[in-house]
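Closing statement on the iron/sulfur cluster sub-project.
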Amino acid sequence: MKSILVGFDTKEQVDAAVAYETASEDEKDYASVIASAPLHSYSGQCVYCGHCKPCPVNIDIAMVNKFLDMAKSQPAVPESVASHYGTLEHTASECMGCGGCEGRCPFEVKIRERMKEAAELFGS
Ligand code: SF4
Ligand code: SF4
């Protein structure tokens, strides 16, 4: 188990940090902040934010992308990743290519291509 301990120098920093607790859902949404970050581009990379929902065949696109990235970061698909992928109720092979998700993704992820890739890699 890992943990992060955050330190503060001023009362204002504490106030800014705890303001999260009373922020609206829109204010808590980090996707637009990351998508417009000037010094780093996440374009084309899934950050697992879930903004692409809903999928008409109920694929959990963020989870499929996460397992795909984990699998591709290794020379061979780790057994644990394949096993977790296998527990998904709906897998990438069910993608019917409607493209609705891509219009909602702030990071311009080529989701349909990735669903095909995941279906081939995991075999379902
Ligand atoms: S595909 Fe796009 S919208 Fe969907 S989880 Fe990934 S980054 Fe977020
Ligand atoms: S393109 Fe595939 S993953 Fe995206 S919403 Fe349509 S069916 Fe779901």
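The chain is about 45% helix and 0% strand. With this model delivered, the sub-project is considered complete and its resources will be redirected to Aim 3.
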